Amino acid sequence: MTVQDKIIWMESIRGRNHPLSLFRGWLDEYLPEYTALNLIQVGGTNGKGSTCQWLNFILEKEGYKVGVFTSPHLISHTERIRVNSENISFERWEMIFDKYEQLFKEKEFTMFEMDLFMAVAYFIAERIDWGIIEVGMGGRLDATTALNYKATLITNIGKDHMEYLGETLHDIAIEKSGIFKPDVPAIAYDTTCFSVMEEQALQKHTSLVVADYDLSRYDLSKLPAYQRENLTLALSALEMLHLLKPAVVQEVINSFVWEGRFMVVREDPLLIVDGAHNVPGIQALIRSLKGFHGTIYFSALKEKEVDRMIRILFEFDSDLVLVHFDSYRVCDIEGMAQRFGLPCITFEEMKYELDHTQGDSLVCGSLYFIGDVLKWVEKSR
């Protein structure tokens, strides 16, 4: 098997993760050094990846060696495991996979559990100073919660993955705040469900505070609105951990890029891609696109609140086009197009239009959709 064959096999292993006690037991047995890692856990509905990136960039700029574990990936599976902003190499990925392949198969690890286990093994080998770990889904039962942390962060609470996390914000907040741990400080940005999180923090003997770092000293003119929220959370957390050197922050702001999030891939004519894949994400995108007049290309997965996202996008004075991309999880694009009286095109037709338009364009929706767009952009350069 080639390394790509191994990745394809891994990506086929889906399903529910094992109980945290089991996964922690495997870590104890095979990677006991994991308890010495300095880790920060980032949960929430939207903004997890961006918050991880802010933490990563600031700590790197301060001279720390930083490991980051995030999901999903946009172009290459190796994006999920990074040290000092470099994806794990295919050679190192394969070496770690080969070492633990029998364990993965014997214990029937899910893809996410394999990814996380391999990230921990890599971070130990690389002797990182700090590790940033993004929660996969929810928090209470997420495999990442089996690890030890110096702090836990929650970006916001919104309706997403409701088939797993519950139908109400109250239920979802309980699942998200399941990352709280005794005597590990927690910090949250969104106060929508703060009373629920406070109750969970009290039960778990966790100190919970609201992110309130003052950004007024910085020039934020080039940042989309929602990134200011993620930056506030990251800076508040680093200050709480006594890791923040304010002198480096403006330099990080000036150069901040998070692939697939409010990403300008072409300036003339303007082409922005954004992985806003649920209602809170689309609402955040709307706040950051004041004055946009162009064509919006949108696609989403079937388990999302697609109706609501489309209605929110109608707030723009722009043409809205639905796009069918190659995924078994894509929503009923044709049905949505008929329901809302919108045009519906294929991914290939969208590429042709983007190549030949003279107007501004926004491509948004599913991260898998955005990943396919970025692969096309990369090949076109």
Helix content: 40-55%
Average pLDDT rating: 93
By DSSP (H or I, 4+ residues per run), the number of helices equals 15
Question: What is the CA–CA distance across the termini?
Answer: 31 Å
Structural class: alpha/beta
The tally of structural domains comes to 2
| Tertiary shape | globular
Radius of gyration, whole Å = 21 Å
Unreliable residue stretches: none
How are the strands of the biggest sheet laid out side by side? 4-3-2-5-1-6-7-8
N-to-C order of helices and strands: HHEHEEEHHEEHHEHEHHEEHEHEHEHEH
Question: What's the short story on this structure?
Answer:
This protein has 381 residues and is of the alpha/beta class.
